[in-house]
Structure formats: structure tokens, C-alpha cells
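Dear colleagues,

As part of the handover before I leave the project, I'm documenting each prediction I ran so the next person doesn't have to rerun anything. This entry is a single chain, and its sequence is reproduced below.
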Amino acid sequence: MNIPEIVGAGLIVIGAGVGIGRIGGSAMDAIARQPEASGKIQTAMLIAAALIEGIGFAALFAA
């Protein structure tokens, strides 16, 4: 592995982490505002986080 590939892999991991963190924070805000919708919000949050993680892994292996 050379330096550009290592930097690219690091950026991919950082981007996926920031994306999943923002999803989690937004979901907690939404649950605090509407606790009765917590089940639907959690389901949507987990699906979105899984999709971001999958795309991150695919990009990591493609780099």
C-alpha cells in the first residue's frame, strides 16, 4: 500500500464514522421530541447506519 491509498482509506473510515454519528445524534433528537415514535425512528436509524457502513466497506475494498 502506498501513501495515497492509506490516506484514502482513512478518509473513507472518517467519513463513515461521521455519517453514522450524525444519524445517531439526529435520531436521539427526534426521539426526544416524539418519544411515541421511537420504534420507527430506531428502525430507520439502524437501516441507514447499516447502509452507510456497507458503502464504507465497499469503498474501502475498492480503494
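The chain has a mean pLDDT of 94. Residues 11 and 38 are 32 Å apart (CA to CA).

All the best with the project,
I.
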